[in-house]
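Morning!

This is the sequence you dropped in the shared folder:
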Amino acid sequence: MKRAIFPGSFDPITLGHYDIISRGLTLFDELIIAIGINAEKKYMFSLEERKHFIEEAFREVPNIRVMTYEGLTVDFCKKTGSQFILRGLRNPADFEFEKAIAHTNRKLSEIETVFLLTSSGKSYISSSIVRDVIRNGGDYTELVPDTVRVK
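The structure's back. Tokens below.
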């Protein structure tokens, strides 16, 4: 079984993430959406909200699991028996950043990183942009799955 994790903070999940997840499902038998916990980060949405947004968005997809983790991503891969890390790339800056992480992960383990380019119509979307739109009262609904709604 080919199992991959798609790690991130997903604060919140965006249509860019959704795109990578949906396309990643064609490559792997199982995909674990891995919500990383970083005590140093201040999140807009609680861990429970972020997990709920994702679980609801993919509730009809049997080969997706949503899990949370702390620590090194490669350690979480080993714990879950995942052989791959799936990452999305929006632009050249993403590539340079992700390349360094992928090389480090390969040095620490046998885990391969698989990169997918975000679809062109979604490449401008980031969680930080969505949070900014929400904070300023803008219409964020075209940037996120329908499961993401601010109270």
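Headline: The chain has a mean pLDDT of 94.

More detail when I'm at my desk.
O.
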